[in-house]
Automatic annotation (TrEMBL):
Name the UniProt record assigns to this protein: Major facilitator superfamily (MFS) profile domain-containing protein
Entry's localization field: Membrane
Presence of keyword Acetylation: no
Record-level GO cellular component terms: membrane
Organism of provenance: Lasius platythorax
UniProt domain Major facilitator superfamily (MFS) profile: residue ranges: 29-508
Signal peptide boundaries: none
Keywords: Membrane, Transmembrane, Transmembrane helix, Transport
Superkingdom: Eukaryota
Pfam families for the chain: Sugar_tr (PF00083)
Molecular-function GO term, any one: transmembrane transporter activity
Transmembrane portions of the chain: 27-54, 66-87, 94-118, 124-141, 153-176, 192-212, 299-319, 367-389, 396-416, 422-443, 455-477, 483-503
Length: 512
């Protein structure tokens, strides 16, 4: 591309990012954004191993466990939109750093907590923080990519989620069974406390590492800060080529005719007057999402997130419990077959005598192993997706993953043993986790820069709301009428598959 291509007004974003090359910087950016996404995978699933290990120390019965699993989800519902609003007004990088440092600090402090309700409050704030990182890392990564590579790079993020799903049970398996205890009259610190603390450290390290990266140049251009954006392009060019930043061929950038008021980036959140300006900006951006031409995309994205996430998180929380109950049934009734509905209704005979499970807090090795298998099952999809996504499109893969996972959900009603349950669980996890990543990829293309993170955050809020509702419905109905939640979640997934046909084809146009 010659420099004579440039208009008098300067280079546009697509040309400016293309001439920086694609190299070392982009690989480092994918690494840190991928590790952030992997960290969020650990953050949202960590409680599945904390619950059985900490049930005696925190005196948790089944009801308490339900409250504890709901608290981070509630934090996510509230946090998603708040962080999204801030990222679309204050900047991607600074808000992403804030979410990571908050998640890390709260996680480490929570590992020293001695009382259930205090621990529950800390997990609420963990959910509040981790959802911000999850919603912002995709737009932040996507806004540094030329159109040619954007969809493929975003799809590699699914591999990092897969690694997180595999790594978490391995870390838990290594640490939780350790005979490690520090106790005094008023304080105890056991292996599960150490596990919680160690799982919080990556957030702190990633938050600090992110200081070495620039703000999104696409966001800076949207704010009218062309000089700052040009410096970022020069810096990327230098990292990719090894050349002097001053040799970057683009000397000026196109000014945005209508751009976000610069002042929103420098607002002081502690000043009442500045807060009023910020809330006005947030209200305007929100109303823009809820009006044409973005209204249809907003509704479709939110509906897909609600149906997909409610099915995914509810069934994933239930899988380890089903593994355990299938094994209990097969141990007591060797050679006999059973169904999901029969094992889900099995009572726990020890609950009356030992309400907090203090006689046996050991997690069976098979639970760790089955969780690893579920993560390994995601690897083929994580490799196939980035290779073929540019040819077939993210929309095609999203529709296939939703429709097939709906069929798999129906299949749960017909399983008769633990092996069939494990196989279907692996297929379900592989397809639905792929679907969740694909929704984020599509949203990056569907909305303009000034609305992108907020749109992702709004859909994420609906998704977490779906997870909250799904867990409540499933927990209430599984013993009363097992077939209803299975049919309900299958219907959700099929409906999401049909709604995906309404999504625009993405990955072919330059970002707005």
């Amino acid at each position: 591309m010659g420099l004579d291509f440039l208009a008098d007004g300067g280079a546009d974003f697509e040309h400016a990012i293309t001439v920086t090359g694609f190299g070392r910087f982009h690989y480092m950016l994918l690494a840190i954004c991928g590790l952030i996404y992997m960290d969020t995978a650990i953050g949202v699933t960590i409680l599945s191993f904390v619950l059985p290990a900490a049930q005696c120390d925190l005196q948790m019965d089944s009801t308490s466990k339900g409250w504890l699993t709901a608290s981070p989800m509630l934090g996510m519902v509230i946090g998603s939109y708040i962080w999204g609003c801030l990222a679309d007004t204050k900047g991607r990088k600074i808000v992403l750093i804030a979410t990571l440092l908050m998640d890390g600090i709260v996680g480490v402090v929570s590992s020293f907590v001695q009382y259930f309700w205090v621990f529950l409050i800390f997990r609420f704030f963990n959910g509040f923080a981790v959802t911000g990182a999850m919603g912002i890392c995709f737009p932040y990564l996507g806004e540094f990519q030329p159109t040619k590579y954007r969809e493929r790079v975003l799809c590699w993020m699914e591999m990092f989620w897969t690694v997180g799903v595999i790594v978490l049970p391995l870390i838990a398996w290594l640490i939780i069974p350790m005979d490690f205890t520090y106790e005094s009259e008023t304080f105890h610190f056991k292996s599960w406390n150490l596990f919680v603390a160690l799982c919080a450290l990556p957030s702190l390290m990633l938050g600090l590492w992110l200081f070495a990266f620039p703000e999104s140049p696409k966001f800076l251009l949207e704010c009218g800060e062309t000089d700052a954006a040009l410096e970022v392009f020069k810096w990327i060019y230098s990292r990719n080529t090894g050349a002097d930043p001053d040799t970057y061929p683009v000397k000026c950038l196109q000014e945005k005719t209508k751009h976000q008021d610069k002042s929103t980036r420098s607002l002081k959140l502690l000043k009442r007057k500045d807060l009023k300006v910020l809330f006005t900006e947030i209200r305007d951006l929100t109303s823009a999402l809820c009006k044409p031409p973005y209204l249809r995309n907003t509704v479709v994205a939110c509906a897909i997130q609600f149906g997909l996430t409610s099915s995914y998180y509810t069934l994933m929380v239930w899988f380890p419990e089903l593994f355990t109950r299938f094994e209990q049934f097969e141990h007591m009734n060797p050679g006999e077959t059973t169904s999901v509905c029969i094992v889900s209704a099995l009572p726990d005979n020890g609950t009356f005598f030992d309400p907090y499970g203090c006689e046996d807090t050991m997690i069976a090795p098979s639970v760790y192993l089955h969780t690893v298998y579920i993560g390994l099952a995601c690897i083929p999809g994580s490799i196939i997706l980035p290779i073929f996504v540019h040819k077939l499109g993210a929309k095609f893969f999203l529709i296939v993953s939703l429709v097939v996972s709906g069929a798999v959900t129906v299949g749960f009603y017909y399983v008769v043993n633990s092996m069939q349950n494990l196989v279907l669980s692996c297929v379900f996890e592989a397809l639905t986790s792929l679907g969740i990543s694909l929704v984020y990829c599509v949203i990056v293309d569907m909305f303009p820069t000034n609305l992108r993170v907020m749109a992702a955050a709004l859909s994420l809020t609906m998704g977490r709301l779906g997870a909250l509702v799904g867990n409540l419905v499933f927990g209430y109905l599984i013993d009363l009428a097992c077939v209803i939640p299975i049919v309900l979640f299958a219907a959700f997934l099929f409906a999401c598959g049909l709604l995906s046909f309404l999504l625009p084809r993405t990955g072919k146009e330059t970002l707005e």
